[in-house]
Amino acid sequence: MSLKKGEPKFSDYIIKSSDPVEVFMGKGGGCFPSKQRAPVGVPDQDPPNPERGNSISLQNQISSTNATTHVQDGAVQVQPPKKLKIFIVFYSMYGHVEILAKKMKTGVDSVEGIEGFLYRVPETLAPEVLGQMRVPQKDIEVPVISADGLVEADGLLFGFPTRYGSMAAQMKAFFDSTGRLWEQQRLVGMPAGFFVSTGTQGGGQETTAWTAITQLAHHGMIYVPIGYTFGAEMFKMDAIRGGSPYGAGVFSGDGTREPSETELALAEHQGRYMAGMVKRFAQSS
User: Fold this and answer.
1) d(CA 199, CA 75)
2) Distances in Å between the alpha carbon of 228 and those of 107, 150, 157, 233, 235?
3) Cα Dmax for the chain
4) What pLDDT, in 10s, does the model give residues 244-276?
5) Which of 32, 36, 174, 220 has its Cα between 20 and 30 A from that of 118?
6) pLDDT (0 to 100) of residue 240
7) Does the global pTM surpass 0.85?
8) CB 247 within 8 A of CB 193
9) Do residues 212 and 158 lie in contact, with contact meaning Cβ atoms separated by under 8 Å?
10) The predicted structure's pLDDT at residue 233
11) What is the pLDDT of residue 2?
12) Residue 178 and residue 187: Cα distance in Å, rounded?
């Protein structure tokens, strides 16, 4: 078919590789060719390069193992993948929560590829006040964490005693110090759970964890309860036991009661369960 004078040719609609065309993609906006794209009729791939091809093939084989690779003196060195980290952050006045925290770390460490780290939050009471309350000395091997340190974790477990059915003031003060992380949304999507200590059976084994969920909600964190995954031990009525579907727990009584074997086993289970969940989140991301 012949064209009349002045009518555009088909070739006028072809975008040449030298044209300054950008890519614009958006909701309902369509897709336009990139100026980086090769001209029509020219393949996108670079010409074959046997050396480069072998290198890429080797790297792909290595990356499939999720390992870290380094090239040194022409040799490829493979390092094992880094472990995911779960921070067990707690406040413990008389040691009951700390006992659960250490047992929880045992459970975390039992899962391949996951490692648990113990941290305590800063104390807010003066030393003389703690002395009058006969609070024992804290384990110096457990470091104090600042709010900014939370972002280094892949998952978090928070432990604290109850004060009238909600978390102790020391832990609340720590959460209050995370304002900058909230502003920058640094903890969004972080999986987290709770474990608690109460003085009596009706002292807040559930409400202490339940009321703490608001802290996670405002940060956009993902609350991970244990539900009834502990099995038959969650239903037995023949002995006093702390803990609930919200998380592990212990009864401290007047401060002299030691955690029972079931309470310790539940804490270890929660650590193991949380590690499995963090691993699943990491694999799906």
Assistant:
1) 60
2) 17, 28, 18, 9, 9
3) 103
4) 999 999 999 888 889 999 999 999 999 999 999
5) 220
6) 87
7) no
8) yes
9) yes
10) 87
11) 53
12) 10
Q: Using alpha carbons, select from 56, 111, 77, 106 the residue that is nearest to residue 283.
A: 111
Question: How far is 232 from 96, CA to CA, in rounded Å?
Answer: 24
- Model pLDDT, residue 73: 66
- Amino acid identity of residue 261, one-letter, is E
Nearest CA to 250 out of 207, 209, 199 is that of 199
Give every residue of the chain whose pLDDT is below 50, as ranges.
Answer: 10, 13-65
Place of tokens 């036991």: 241
Query: First vs last Cα of the chain: how many Å apart?
Result: 56
Which pLDDT score is estimated for 70?
61
The pairing of beta strand 114-120 with beta strand 84-90: parallel
In single-letter form, the type of residue at position 147 comes to: A
Q: Write out the chain in H/E/C secondary structure.
A: CCCCCCCCCHHHHCCCCCCCCCCCCECCCECCCCCCCCCCCCCCCCCCCHHHHHHHHHHHHHHCCCCEEEEECCEEEEECCCCEEEEEEECCCCCHHHHHHHHHHHHHHCCCCEEEEEEECCCCCCHHHHHHCCCCCCCCCCCECCHHHHHHCCEEEEEEEEECCEECHHHHHHHHCCHHHHHHCCCCCCEEEEEEEECCCCCCCCHHHHHHHHHHHHHCCEECCCCCCCHHHHCCCCCCCCCECCECEEECCCCCCCCCHHHHHHHHHHHHHHHHHHHHHHHHC
Strands 155-163 and 114-120: unpaired
- pLDDT score for 54: 44
